[in-house]
Amino acid sequence: MASTEPWLLENGNIRCLTKDMKHGHGHSHGRTAHNMSSSSLRKKSDLTLVSKVRHGFLRKFLVNLQEVLLGTKLSVLFLAIPFAIAAECRDFGRPWVFALSLLGLTPLAERVSFLTEQLAFYTGPTVGGLLNATCGNATELIISIFALVQHKVDVVKYSLLGSILSNLLLVLGTSLFCGGIANIGKEQKFDRKQADVNTLLLLFGLLCHVLPMMFRYAGNGAELMGTQTLALSRASCVVMLIAYISYLVFQLWTHRQLFEASEDDEEDSDVVSDESAVIGLWSAFVWLVLMTGVIALLSEYVVGTIEAASESWGLSVSFISVILLPIVGNAAEHAGAVIFAFKNKLDISLGVALGSATQIAMFVIPLTVIVSWIIGIDMNLNFNILETTCLALSIIVTAFALQDGTSHYLKGLVLLLCYLVIGACFFIFRTTNNHADPVNISFRSSNEAIMRV
């Protein structure tokens, strides 16, 4: 077997590198909650057959192919990608393109996390952490940019709002509920320090949403109000990005220990150990670029077919954007959080749910507004009173649920019921308007005011 070992490596010395990392700086830092959550859905590849291939380059290529495409328990969903492309090219029903594209996006988010973790073996923990922070919500960011280009500001706002709500209420609620039921005889505890930091940032992000919304009620005329709302939103987004950069410094340098998965969390027989890189540096980089390209393609399909799916399924665009897009797009990460909650490892589940919500609120939303500013599209932080109220109450309920550092199934149940009521709200909102899309109604007044300026 020794003679076949180099084919696992791209440059023949990765084993030595990872062994050094294991005893040096690479292992001295703990893995983040996102890494641990994603690894729960990975599986070890059986490379016995591939190792018998004699041609060196072909062997490396097949190893990379097997590790990247078959190294996840969600690999069967990759089949949806060619079907989605074929459905688009052959002009099949638009709702089919939308559904197949959503299914295809599900494993891609987990694979991006895997590839950024592979890159971290070569770039070091800090750069790896920055990569993970940037690429962690790549799907939402890419969908938002494509929606902006197509002037679908409503889809952008609702999909990003839905991502925050699903993380705070659905993922966290499911984790606390399942963890409480599975460990009903134990007192579940978690470290409040990380939750406090994320809650503080979420409340700051909420402030930046509330103030532009309140301009509507301050009253200086519709035209002036639109201009002021846009100016305040853009200024707030710059401040939010500064806060997010400070959060990264806090997370990756000054207080890294608060965000690391503990050693006993890593020693789990059901989690694939990632103590050594399984693909090379350039292979990981190329695969990451390819995966991002496929995500971009499927995101374009999703944005282009969402109205057709809305009409065909009898659901409003707002309901699909707030509820369906976040659930399917982050299914892999969500499943990992719930798996660790079952094992009474709530710190990992909290790190995934709160970390993702914070990243969307403090990075993806302000970056999207800045990008819209650059490309000449007016997008502000006014999510209107119904949506902002849902966001505010979700953050407050979550903060109260986590305030004492302990958990039980009732807390999770309440969070899930909150999500159920919000989902019902967006589902019913359309039917009360005689099937007129509430998104266009809710944003029409502010957009018309801005266009007149």
TrEMBL record:
Transmembrane segments: 68-86, 130-149, 161-185, 197-219, 231-250, 279-299, 319-342, 354-375, 381-402, 409-429
Membrane protein topology class: Multi-pass membrane protein
InterPro entries reported for this sequence: CaH_exchang (IPR004713), CAX-like (IPR004798), NaCa_Exmemb (IPR004837), NCX_ion-bd_dom_sf (IPR044880)
GO cellular component, one term: plant-type vacuole membrane
Family membership noted in the UniProt record: Belongs to the Ca(2+):cation antiporter (CaCA) (TC 2.A.19) family. Cation/proton exchanger (CAX) subfamily.
Purpose: Vacuolar cation/proton exchanger (CAX). Translocates Ca(2+) and other metal ions into vacuoles using the proton gradient formed by H(+)-ATPase and H(+)-pyrophosphatase.
Pfam entry (one): Na_Ca_ex
UniProt GO MF annotations: calcium:proton antiporter activity
Domain Sodium/calcium exchanger membrane region: 96-253, 284-422
Compartment(s) of residence: Vacuole membrane
Name of the protein in its database record: Vacuolar cation/proton exchanger
Renumbered residue ranges of the record's region Disordered: 20-40
BP terms from Gene Ontology: intracellular calcium ion homeostasis; intracellular manganese ion homeostasis; intracellular zinc ion homeostasis; lithium ion transport; phosphate ion homeostasis; regulation of stomatal movement
NCBIfam families: caca2 (TIGR00846), cax (TIGR00378)
Keywords assigned: Antiport, Calcium, Calcium transport, Ion transport, Membrane, Transmembrane, Transmembrane helix, Transport, Vacuole
